[in-house]
Design goal:
This protein has 742 residues and is α/β, with parallel strands linked by helices. Helix content is 34%, strand content 22%. It has a 7-stranded parallel sheet with strand order 11-12-10-13-14-9-15, with helices on both faces. A 6-stranded parallel sheet has the order 16-26-25-17-24-23, sandwiched between helices. Strands 2-1-4-3-5 form a 5-stranded antiparallel sheet, with helices on one face. Helix 11 links the parallel strand 13 and strand 14. Helix 1 packs across helix 2. It is globular. The structure holds adenosine-5'-diphosphate and zinc ion (2 copies).
């Protein structure tokens, strides 16, 4: 038996894997991640490495392969644990071990740690004065200036000193050599947040909060490590519950990771954690410089950090003794990676927690159907927070049927009711948010007179308009011609919805010329901090109306907003994937929750062409449970996740014919390995975006009752792809339970 070993866990060295023989004395004692000592290089220097894989054969001359010397004694180092996690990810999501390791191991490049230098006078006052006389006598002006400064103040910061007294490094060095002064070095690890500790006001937890906290603590004390789902509307006190749980874990000398979607990772949120845990909190986000990142890792290595807050990638924080992983807003699609391995932070967090004996807490106001399903089946423990901690009222939500507006002769995208409410709020000097739901918009075609949407007869997802007047199903490849008249009512008002935020801004300005309007979308947030600038301008009451895409519904509190208008609520409903209803419900519930965070209860208006759809009805009632029941029925009927598991195989290549042929072969192979009929194979078909960067794309779906059958299929398919040179020019990715519209 042979083991693949990586010697150096820095990023640029990860590609270098070395094979070693496993001596009989170590047989059965090694696993992926085990730290071993091996002879390395010409001098056979004893070097530490990590096992990343095993094999029975070797491509090298077996006589020349060196043997592993021994296993490193002691517990598995954190690097080893992360290597083991990478192996789990490779197994579950496909791709190579190197790709998985690069995702998991944090060190990009060794950055030099900045040092703080302090200059200290070594001479007594008398000796110093004598020396000063000598310098003056010899006309050594710079030395005299430096010494006089130090006699004034014997300990000073190096950088300040050189600037203030205008002396060079050479002058300081010469005084150091004469033992007049000494330079002291200290690591200056930057902390990305300017920390001011606030007095924490002790709060009395509600009964529901206490149930969650006490159950968690009891389990933890009993050595039980579980996954919990905390379902509570915004403002119900979830963050307070996380902090109390973290506090318990930290008191045991363990560390906690808190994942928050980048968009919700605001200054206020981070400051709450600082207020509670002081500067033993660190953050990782995309705005940190490489140096600041490195400093955080160094602080972690030195045990100076207990709580790490960050987006998806913070999951791989190299804590030595991890106790808890919290994932806030667990339903967010940002937790799914778009790069290989296409891991989901929720599943990966649970895997890491199992390996390191930690607990996981998932939190959401609108849990993913997947997480709620698992909570219902007892795989997760469910806690419910049903009331707002500060007792604010929920908004009054009304659904406006846009088909009726058209009948009344109003062809505008703003309904009469919404228009009246906007006028009212402008008069009262209260704020308004208009939200254009473009999420997952993929060219569906509908009738504006009756709301009819053209769907696939086989898959119950909407068809997408492709070029050349075709309507295509992204799941099975079904095709039909673009319609000109609605088959239900005969109206010729059929087509895709095209209005963008820009057009809406123009319209709003024309309708309400006195209103101050801000727009937030990809265009207006391109610049660095563009996002923050718009939000803070709105929050400082510099505008009356904020218009935006889904960016505006997340993570920010605007107490003065008392009206939220959702334009075209259906856009996300008919995007062509099985999660469109879930996404619609989440967005609408969040949008409605925006109105009335302050003292006044607000209004929300949901404009739609399908007012009867359960996702819209339940969002208006803010009824998660009702939505879930309807949705899980649909998923079981259609065999979609979480009831069944779904694997998407994405293929791309520069030659269309070749790609299609290869996709066909892959399907045939999938059918051949399906002799037990555990899999359902669908496709291959072209996704909505058929070509990217001159590469054509095809997609093949495999459904199964159980995840492990899909993993088995993936392993076999990977091997088949590796062995057949015909696949060599194609890019092939595996995506389990895909979350984004292709
Ligand atoms: P969520 O994370 O669910 O949105 P938060 O934890 O942010 O909710 O709580 C909303 C607000 O209510 C915060 O200002 C929080 O400090 C406060 N809060 C939470 N729980 C309580 C409580 N038991 N008593 C008083 N205030 C509370
Ligand atoms: Zn119609
Ligand atoms: Zn179909």
């Amino acid at each position: 038996m042979y083991a693949d070993i990586i010697i150096d866990i820095t990023h640029e060295k990860l590609d270098k894997v070395f094979q070693y023989r496993i001596p009989s004395s170590l047989e059965g004692m090694l696993e992926v991640g085990t730290e071993v000592v091996v002879p390395f290089g010409r001098g056979n220097k004893e070097t530490k490495g990590y096992v990343i894989a095993f094999s029975e054969e070797t491509d090298y001359d077996p006589a020349k392969i060196k043997s592993i010397l021994r296993k490193d004694s002691g517990a598995m180092a954190i690097e080893g644990k992360l290597v083991a996690l990478a192996a789990w990810m490779k197994e579950h999501y496909g791709g190579t071990m190197i790709q998985a390791l690069k995702t998991v191991l944090p060190i990009k490049k060794k950055e030099k740690i900045r040092q703080k230098r302090t200059v200290r006078l070594l001479l007594s006052e008398n000796d110093g004065k004598q020396m000063l006389d000598t310098y003056l006598h010899k006309n050594q002006k710079a030395r005299a200036r430096l010494l006089a400064g130090l006699l004034d103040q014997p300990v000073q910061e190096y950088e300040l000193l050189t600037k203030k007294l205008n002396v060079t490094a050479a002058v300081i060095r010469s005084l150091e050599e004469q033992q007049v002064l000494t330079i002291e070095y200290e690591d200056a690890l930057r902390n990305p947040i300017n920390y001011q500790k606030k007095e924490c006001v002790a709060i009395t937890y509600t009964k529901e909060q206490l149930t969650a906290i006490e159950t968690f603590i009891r389990d933890y004390e009993d050595g039980e490590r579980k996954t919990y789902l905390l379902h509570g509307i915004t403002g119900s006190g979830k963050t307070e519950v996380y902090m109390e749980m973290i506090n318990h874990v930290v008191k045991q000398g363990k560390q906690a990771i808190v994942l928050i979607p980048e968009i919700a990772l605001t200054y206020q949120t981070v400051m709450r954690f600082y207020g509670r845990f002081g500067d033993r909190v660190s953050i990782l986000n995309s705005r940190l410089s490489a140096g600041e990142r490195y400093d955080q890792l160094e602080r972690i290595r030195r045990g100076e950090v207990d709580v790490m807050i960050g987006p998806r990638s913070a999951l791989f924080t190299p804590f030595k003794d991890l106790g808890l992983i919290v994932i806030d807003e667990e339903q967010e699609s940002a937790y799914k990676s778009e790069q290989i391995p296409r891991y989901h932070a929720r599943e990966t967090a649970i895997a890491r927690a199992q390996m390191e004996n930690a607990s996981v807490v998932l939190g959401s106001a609108t849990p993913s159907v997947d997480a709620y399903y698992k909570a219902k089946y007892g795989e997760y423990v469910l806690f419910e927070l049903t009331k707002r901690a500060k007792g604010q009222n929920l908004a009054q939500v009304d659904i406006v049927d846009m088909r009726q507006e058209l009948k009344k002769g109003n062809r505008s995208i703003i309904s009469d009711q919404l228009k009246e409410l906007i006028e009212d709020r402008l008069q009262k000097k209260e704020q308004i948010m208009l939200f254009l739901n473009r999420r997952g918009y993929a060219g569906f075609v509908s009738c504006r007179a009756c709301g009819y949407v053209v769907k696939c007869p086989h898959c119950d997802v909407s068809l997408s308009a492709h070029r050349g007047g075709r309507l295509v199903c992204h799941y099975c490849g079904y095709e039909t011609r673009l319609i000109e008249h609605c088959p239900e009512c005969g109206s010729s008002y059929v087509g895709g919805f095209r209005a963008g935020t820009q057009q809406i801004e123009d319209l709003v300005k024309r309708m309400f010329p006195e209103a101050r309007v801000l727009r937030m979308d990809l265009d207006t947030t391109k610049s660095k901090d563009g996002h923050e600038k718009i939000l803070s301008a709105f929050s400082n009451l510099e505008a009356d109306i904020l218009i935006g895409t889904q960016m505006i519904v997340k993570g920010h509190d605007f107490p003065n907003v008392t009206l939220v208008g959702v334009l075209a609520a259906d856009l996300s409903l008919y995007s062509s994937d099985y999660q469109s209803a879930e996404r619609t419900f989440q967005l609408l519930a969040q949008a409605a929750g925006r109105a009335g965070r302050g003292k006044v209860a607000g209004n929300a208006i949901i404009q739609t062409y399908s007012p009867d759809h359960y996702s819209i009805q339940m969002a208006a009632k803010q009824d998660y449970e009702g939505f879930y029941e309807a949705e899980i029925n649909y998923r079981s009927l259609m065999g979609y996740p979480p009831v069944n598991q779904l694997l998407a195989i994405l293929m791309s290549g520069s030659e269309e014919e070749h790609l299609k042929k290869a996709a066909g072969y892959l399907k045939e192979f999938a059918e051949r390995i399906n002799w037990q009929k555990k899999l359902v194979i669908i496709g291959p078909t072209a996704p909505y975006i058929e070509k990217v960067n001159d590469r054509y794309r095809q997609i093949l779906y495999i459904k199964s009752k159980e995840y492990r059958f899909l993993i088995e299929a993936k392993d076999l398919l990977e091997r088949y792809i590796d062995m057949n040179t015909g696949f060599g020019s194609l890019r092939i990715q595996f995506d389990f339970n895909p979350m984004n519209t292709m």
